[in-house]
Design a protein that fits this description.
alpha/beta, TIM Barrel, 8-stranded parallel barrel, two-stranded antiparallel sheet, 8 helices, 34% helix
Length: 216
């Protein structure tokens, strides 16, 4: 496999079930104030449909340890993904309320990883590289400059896994993987027929391209 796959922004149990059937390693729901937002109880129902063989991710728009810990417990999460520009201190505080993996998003406005975010590569379990676009936390559909970021990762990459998000779709994910070498690729809008509604054909095409099952 070229990279593990995370299908995110799930709003329907049937889409989460298909993600597991296809072979994704992670399935995610958005618990932040975004168009695909679901509450903790709905998120648990959606993620339950994926079964126990796939890791459950919740995307947060807050770094408040108490709120994150309580919501993660209600949704039965394996992974907390912090998208509100988390710091190392945020990651460490949430470790005291949540026993699973903590992913820290670095939202990139230009062509490079900002210097103050570099410590996250050793303190978070994974670093999520996503595009910064105004007030949106994510799901922008905007691709990152993979070549420039590959140079940054050669300098910054620590013990954390690298999760690549931002504008990925079936037609470009294989190129992104070859250029940047992420451990996980994270897709939401790139596999949708409309916001929050996943397209089964696009999901299968994305997984096939990311896993190297066919040439792109």
């Amino acid at each position: 496999m070229l990279a593990k796959v995370k299908f995110c922004g799930m709003t329907r149990p049937l889409d989460a079930a298909l993600a597991a059937e296809i072979g994704a390693s992670y399935v995610g729901v958005v618990l932040a104030a975004r168009p695909r937002r679901v509450d903790a109880e709905a998120g648990r129902e959606i993620l339950d449909a994926a079964g126990s063989a796939i890791k459950r991710v919740g995307v947060f728009g807050t770094n408040d340890p108490t709120e994150v810990g309580e919501t993660a417990a209600l949704a039965h999460l394996d992974v907390v993904q912090l998208h509100a520009d988390p710091s190392v201190s945020d990651v460490n505080a949430i470790r005291r309320t949540f026993p699973g993996e903590i992913w820290a998003a670095i939202r990139i406005a230009g062509a490079h990883i900002r210097a103050e975010a570099q410590p996250l590569f050793d303190d978070a379990d994974a670093v999520v590289l996503d595009a910064r676009n105004g007030k949106k936390l994510g799901g922008t559909g905007q691709a990152l400059p993979w070549g420039e970021l590959a140079l940054d990762l050669a300098r910054d990459r620590g013990s954390a896994a690298v999760v690549l998000a931002g504008g990925l779709k079936p037609g470009n994910v294989a190129t992104a993987i070859r250029t940047l070498g992420p451990d996980v690729v994270d897709v939401s809008s790139g596999i949708e027929s409309s916001p929050g509604i996943k397209d089964p054909w696009l999901m299968r095409e994305f997984y096939a391209a990311a896993s190297g099952q066919r040439a792109r």
